[in-house]
Amino acid sequence: MPFPRITARAVLGLAAMLALAACSTDGPTEVTTNPDGPSFYTYPSAIYRNHVEFGAPSGSSTSDVRLSKNTHYISYNCSRGGPNWVSWNLNKTHYGDAARSTSFYSDGTLPTGCYRVTTSDYTNSGFSRGHMVRSEERTWSSEHNKQTFLMTNILPQYQDLNGGPWYKFEQYLQTQAQTNNKEIYIMAGGYSYSGTLLNAGKVAIPRRNYKIALLMPYGQGLAQATSTSSIEVIAVDMPNITGISTASWESYRTTVDAIESKTGYNFLHLLTDGVESYWEAR
């Protein structure tokens, strides 16, 4: 059963009503939050760390347009009509009670000459619009949630992947952020492309989707990643196929080294060599 979210605004309003009912002369009750405890309510503000805290994935690409949003950072491939990779920070302050957006949007910040994918490019294609940054991870405000519905954050995914092990890993990371008080740095994308949606030549379809998550205690970042025990890295590599809706996300665990060899990207390169080599091989 999901935990109910109690907004900070609702807590403050209740405190004010209780104070009035008691006719207190001591002023309103001060409502505080514990930044070190689990969070299942909306924080007064969403705190975003550096979305490429451990280095933007480096590597050659035939088309690489960098797009910096306040909710995530994108390397976009104009020739494929989708992101090469998306990188973002995740913690408990990013969850709230904002409603899920009802529409997908073309990204107007793409340069002239770069095709702006529309939601209709996916219509009747047999593929879901697969979020890289999950909608639920940006529910502090409706504007933040809307940014996850930009088509530059989307790759074609079969629904068995999108609603199966991919979703289950998203849920796992949500638990780590909210319940276990983790600061998480995530990179996700696709590789091994074959064909385009509706054979229209606009949106290429990846055979594989990967995600790399680096976990630390809340509030920490590169400066605290000084030893192998100061971080944890989880990497998954999932096939974009049907028939895997009941599969566990754990069955697709892999190493960062393996993903690097298949994508040509260098991840987490701002870590010290010893820490990087240790975790990328695990």
Concise overview:
The protein has 282 residues and is an alpha+beta fold. Helix content is 19%, strand content 23%. Strands 1-2-3-6-7-8-9 form a 7-stranded antiparallel sheet. Strands 4-5 form a two-stranded antiparallel ribbon.
Plain-language structure description:
This protein is α+β, with helices and mostly antiparallel strands. 19% of the residues lie in helices and 23% in strands. The protein contains 6 helices and 9 strands; from the N terminus they run H-E-E-E-E-H-E-H-H-E-E-E-E-H-H. The protein has helices at residues 8-21, 142-147, 159-162, 165-178, 256-263, 273-280; strands spanning 65-68, 73-77, 82-90, 128-131, 154-157, 182-196, 204-217, 232-239, 253-254. It has a 7-stranded antiparallel beta sheet with strand order 1-2-3-6-7-8-9. The chain has a two-stranded antiparallel sheet with strand order 4-5. The longest helix has 14 residues, at 8-21. The chain is globular. The model is unreliable at 1-39 (pLDDT under 50).
Largest sheet: 7 strands, antiparallel
Estimate the global geometry from the Cα principal axes: globular
User: What is the oligomeric state here?
Assistant: single chain
User: C-alpha Rg, in Å?
Assistant: 20 Å
State the secondary-structure class. alpha+beta
Q: Residue ranges: pLDDT <50 for 5 or more in a row?
A: 1-39
- Percent helix, as a range, is 10-25%
Q: What's the total helix number?
A: 6
Strand portion: 15-25%
In spatial order, strands of the major sheet run 1-2-3-6-7-8-9
Average the pLDDT over all residues and give the rounded result. Answer: 88
Order of helices and strands: HEEEEHEHHEEEEHH
Tell how many strands the DSSP assignment holds.
Answer: 9
For the record, give the distance between the C-alpha atoms at the N and C termini, rounded to a whole number. 33 Å
